[in-house]
Amino acid sequence: MSERHHRVVIVGGGFGGLAAARALRAAPVEVVVVDANNFHTFQPLLYQVATAGLDDDNVAFSIRAVLHRAPNASFRQARVTAIDTGAHTVELDRGGPLAYDTLVLAAGAVSHDFGIPGVDTYGLPLKTVEDANRIRLRLLDAFERAADDPALIDDGALNVVVAGGGPTGVELAGGMIELYAHVLARDYPTLPVPAGRVVLVEMADRLLPPFTEPSSERARRTLERRGVEVRTGVGVGRVEATRVHLTDGSVIPAYTAVWAAGVRAHPLAASLGVELAGGGRIVVADDLSVPGQPDVFVVGDLAAAHAPGSRGLLPQVAQPAIQGGRHVAAQIGRRLRGLPTQPFRYVDKGQMATIGRHEAVTELPGGRRLAGPVGWLAWLGLHLVYLVGFRNRALVLVNWAWNYLTYDRGSRLLPESERGR
Ligand SMILES: Cc1cc2nc3c(=O)[nH]c(=O)nc-3n(C[C@H](O)[C@H](O)[C@H](O)COP(=O)(O)OP(=O)(O)OC[C@H]3O[C@@H](n4cnc5c(N)ncnc54)[C@H](O)[C@@H]3O)c2cc1C
């Protein structure tokens, strides 16, 4: 490796890609971050955009602004369409190919429909700010249509089905029921909003499968107490425009069906022609490089990395991506100094999910659990700390304070262009 013009191309400005770019800011390399969007998305708060708690620009942040403090880094807004590891280039959907000396792949995951009919066409994923806006708009449109034609209520216009009882589904269902109870009931005084159903469907026999049973049970009890119908041990069999068919034969009329039931690695992984693990993730060596391709590292949701001493894969959440990004940056520095790379040692910081006002379950390493208001405050604090950008933190804090004190919510605009017929 030549020290002078060594170029590190990072594909993806998410948690993993930006952690790597920041950690390389003092390294003797040129860094190019490539992302299809010119902003970083803080996915953990997307459900609040979908439920009108936050505006979309509260959870997105300019990648160029993040790189202000990394003078050796530049940004290209482009979609990576192919990677030629032999020629050391990435193909972009605009502009010529980009050459690299070291490649860091951090393109994340995409929604996965598991081949279930109708999910692709009618299910609403929650991976991007566009997705979050689409869910909110679909819901508002259904309410406006029902206000105009109350016969649609029996057809499911006020109902929402959330498929997937992991943290995303639980948080979304909890946010949705608060939106119904405190906001939509007041916005639509002529509609029987409490009759609108929020149904959370999970194929496993309990919610939050990665959490302990007491946390799962607490999440279920809290959601049910607040009005969410929780259906566990049953899957989604088919989705239609206004119906969700479950595998036990039951049918839920719903104009809004959110698909939070699964992700798989970004298709770029499969295009590389390397070994893939479950969910299409790239099998990586213990230093997070691709076996046999030491110049290609993979981090975050795209990587099939292991926790130390464990055969299981690391979860597709923010911490493995952040820690992986920093680790890879350190390994690039070591290689440039002629040192061997080191294995990635993931530090488990626990897991958390909020169920809504005053309720969250937090599980810390070592088996400690926080629940209720204490868990909720921990959840709020941690999300503020990890949110990118001071302005975003300030905006989120103001919006949360407003929502908390007034029980009101933010953006509920429905432009004519988004109106259904
Ligand atoms: C709704 C939701 C809620 C979540 N909640 C939590 C939570 O509470 N806690 C938690 O720890 N984790 C949570 N996660 C998971 C967490 O957000 C991910 O694990 C994390 O974002 C993975 O980081 P990453 O860097 O691998 O990918 P990402 O952060 O997804 O970044 C990937 C980047 O790559 C870009 N990209 C993709 N394809 C291309 C291409 N072809 N060309 C150029 N750019 C491309 C994308 O635009 C994106 O910016 C949640 C995820 C979702 C969807």
Provide structural commentary.
With 421 residues, the chain is an alpha/beta fold. It has helices spanning 15-23, 46-50, 63-66, 119-122, 129-148, 151-154, 167-187, 213-226, 268-271, 318-336, 372-386, 390-406; strands spanning 7-11, 30-35, 39-41, 60-62, 73-77, 80-84, 89-92, 98-99, 102-105, 109-111, 124-125, 160-163, 198-202, 228-232, 236-239, 243-246, 251-253, 256-259, 263-265, 282-283, 289-290, 293-298, 303-304, 351-356, 359-363, 369-371. The protein has a six-stranded mixed sheet, with helices on one face. It has a five-stranded parallel sheet with strand order 11-18-12-13-14. Strands 6-7-8 form a three-stranded antiparallel sheet, with no helix packed on it. The structure holds flavin-adenine dinucleotide.
Question: How many β-strand runs?
Answer: 26
**Shape call:** globular
Structural class: alpha/beta
In spatial order, strands of the major sheet run 5-2-1-9-22-21
**What share of residues is helical?**
25-40%
Name some characteristics of this structure.
421 residues, 5-stranded parallel β-sheet, globular, 12 helices, 6-stranded mixed β-sheet, binds flavin-adenine dinucleotide, alpha/beta
Summarize the structure in short.
This protein is an alpha/beta fold and 421 residues long. It has twelve helices and 26 strands. Helices cover 32% and strands 24% of the residues.
Question: Which secondary structure elements does this structure contain, and how are they paired or packed?
Answer:
Blueprint: E1 7-11, H1 15-23, E2 30-35, E3 39-41, H2 46-50, E4 60-62, H3 63-66, E5 73-77, E6 80-84, E7 89-92, E8 98-99, E9 102-105, E10 109-111, H4 119-122, E11 124-125, H5 129-148, H6 151-154, E12 160-163, H7 167-187, E13 198-202, H8 213-226, E14 228-232, E15 236-239, E16 243-246, E17 251-253, E18 256-259, E19 263-265, H9 268-271, E20 282-283, E21 289-290, E22 293-298, E23 303-304, H10 318-336, E24 351-356, E25 359-363, E26 369-371, H11 372-386, H12 390-406
Parallel strand pairs: 1-2, 1-9, 2-5, 9-22, 11-18, 12-13, 12-18, 13-14, 20-23
Antiparallel strand pairs: 3-4, 6-7, 7-8, 10-19, 15-16, 16-17, 21-22, 24-25, 25-26
The site of flavin-adenine dinucleotide has 35 residues, from helix 1, strand 2, helix 2, helix 7 and helix 10.
